[in-house]
């Protein structure tokens, strides 16, 4: 794909990656990573999603799970924005994830509106039938809220929402962004909640590992990851079921390790059967003082009712605190209709700081 003129002084360019995923980032990739980080912090006012070029680069290449394309926007030969298209293989390439992100100084200049049709055209050409995008919507008290069609949650009808509505996207779900801050009191609360969960989880034990996944847990971890794609609320996003096996777990682990991430998995194991039936993931990048990300948490349906969600979350957090004391906060994302998981988070001490919209556009 050649460069495309968007406005009088803005141009869309394909991002050319180094030939090898383990190569050092090029100067262009470093600039791309910097603009990515700046555009996100301009929107959210936070830095939890910052990534170094070294951490980001391995995540830009194709994998058996995703076909990935990236673009950057330049104005007068200066990078001012990024665009991505990640096409999921699990449903035959019919679902794509996209984002266009510009630094604040270039909002409202028509650049995003000019770039989006070209990314959509690339998606259609690849066979994508629906585009999904997740965007945080900062509070704007003067704007009328836009309610989620699920009946749970709302977002401000501000700059980002108006852009997506104007271009044919529909809001499908609202996610809550929450943070937990470590204090002596919050650490003691986690201990108390863990003790209570353990008293209700007789017949189960906690097992933990840091990626890469030990051989004895690969099958169980894959089974739980597969259910994570179908068992969490997804409104009308129509997320496809993912197929996980040992090879996919190995690729998942390797991508985290290539990016310099440390990931702790805390699982509940049914003692009599040996089945892994609940899990929680905590991760951090190369900077040990940065924010921790609480990623997947799932309890298999056949094992619910034993406080296993609380068990794996609190056990994971307390182990993490011992291993990563310099990381003073944890961030997580949950669908507003996922009341069981939100209730666990609230009891632990997570507090809402922002809301994210999950949007869909059907390509015709």
Explain what this protein looks like in three dimensions.
The chain is an alpha+beta fold. It has helices at 27-44, 53-56, 111-125, 159-166, 184-200, 218-231, 246-258, 308-323, 339-348; strands at residues 4-5, 10-14, 66-75, 78-88, 95-102, 130-136, 145-147, 154-156, 170-181, 204-210, 262-270, 276-284, 292-299, 329-335, 351-362. The protein has a 13-stranded mixed beta sheet, with helices on both faces. A two-stranded antiparallel sheet has the order 7-8. Helix 5 runs antiparallel to helix 8 (308-323) and helix 8 (308-323) crosses helix 9 (339-348). The chain is globular, with a radius of gyration of 21 Å. The mean pLDDT is 96.
Structure summary:
The chain has 364 residues and is of the alpha+beta class. It has helices at 27-44, 53-56, 111-125, 159-166, 184-200, 218-231, 246-258, 308-323, 339-348; strands spanning 4-5, 10-14, 66-75, 78-88, 95-102, 130-136, 145-147, 154-156, 170-181, 204-210, 262-270, 276-284, 292-299, 329-335, 351-362.
């Amino acid at each position: 794909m050649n460069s495309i003129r968007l406005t009088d002084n803005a141009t869309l360019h394909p991002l050319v990656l180094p030939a090898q995923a383990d190569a050092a980032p090029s100067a262009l990739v470093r600039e791309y990573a910097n603009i990515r980080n700046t555009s996100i912090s301009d929107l959210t006012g936070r830095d939890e999603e910052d990534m170094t070029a070294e951490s980001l680069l391995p995540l830009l290449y194709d994998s058996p799970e995703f076909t990935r394309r990236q673009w950057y926007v330049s104005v007068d030969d200066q990078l001012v924005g990024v665009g991505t298209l990640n096409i999921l293989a699990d449903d035959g390439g019919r679902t794509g994830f996209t984002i266009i992100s510009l630094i604040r100084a270039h909002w409202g200049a028509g650049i995003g509106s000019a770039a989006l049709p070209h990314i959509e055209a690339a998606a259609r050409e690849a066979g994508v039938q629906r585009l999904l995008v997740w965007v945080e919507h900062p509070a704007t008290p003067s704007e009328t809220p836009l309610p989620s069609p699920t009946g749970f949650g709302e977002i401000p009808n501000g700059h980002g929402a108006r852009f997506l509505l104007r271009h044919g996207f529909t809001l499908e779900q609202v996610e809550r962004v929450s943070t937990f801050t470590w204090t002596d009191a919050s650490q003691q609360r986690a201990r108390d909640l863990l003790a209570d969960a353990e008293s209700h989880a007789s017949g189960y034990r906690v097992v933990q590992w840091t990626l890469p996944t030990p051989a004895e847990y690969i099958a169980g971890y894959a089974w739980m990851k597969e259910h994570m794609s179908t068992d969490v609320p997804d409104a009308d996003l129509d997320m496809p079921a993912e197929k996980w096996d040992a090879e996919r777990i190995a690729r998942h682990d390797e991508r985290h390790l290539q990016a310099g991430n440390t990931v702790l998995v805390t699982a509940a194991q049914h003692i009599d059967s040996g089945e892994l039936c609940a899990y929680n993931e905590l991760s951090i990048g190369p900077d040990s003082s940065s924010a921790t990300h609480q990623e997947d948490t799932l309890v298999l349906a056949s094992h619910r009712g034993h406080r296993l969600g609380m068990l794996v979350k609190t056990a994971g957090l307390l182990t993490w605190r011992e291993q990563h004391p310099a990381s003073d906060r944890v961030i997580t994302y949950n669908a507003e209709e996922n009341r069981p998981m939100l209730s666990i988070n609230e009891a632990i001490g997570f507090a809402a700081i922002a809301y994210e919209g999950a949007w869909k556009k059907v390509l015709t």
